[in-house]
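Worked Example 4.2. Consider the chain below.
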Amino acid sequence: MVQQWYDRAQLSVSSQKMVITPFICKRDLRCLKEPPLSGHTLQLTTEVQYLGLILEKGLMRKVQPKNVMNKAYGAFWTFKGTFVKTWGHKPSVVHSIYTMAFRCILTYSSTVWWLRVRHNVSRTEFSELQRLACLATTGAMKMTPTAALEALLGLLPLHAMIKVEAQAGTYRLIVTNSKDLIH
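Applying the procedure from the previous section yields the following structure tokens:
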């Protein structure tokens, strides 16, 4: 049926790159058969990635926050050598880089997975990353409380920032879709 629709719409599809991820909780999917498309059998997977967003079976939102954290840590440690206490960028430049680049990495696609930051484990992980960035920006001692560093730099706690960005993203989606309806 899908193949007929592709033919009618004059679309070409690479069935070798396509997979199926069933987003169903609490179901036994052993009876689900792998459907054919264009002479190839589509594979069943537990997660799928699209534009950097990872959606897993059951939509538990566990994989995407971990992926985002790994990307942010990688970017942070790559850039860390340029802001050392004795030489390198000024603290204001490091702060700007953190707020403009690293926070964008951390809030990407948060509209989908932000509910995960309600859990204490996720909050702790995000807080640790923000603490690293705050320490790198200020050059403060390691014993300085995270909340004091965030207040000094005027930063929201990262879990709150993710929630704000996610809700703003949802609002932007609604406004964009309503404008499309008006025109």
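The mean pLDDT is 79. The chain has two domains: 2-45, 60-182. Compare this with Example 4.1 before moving on.
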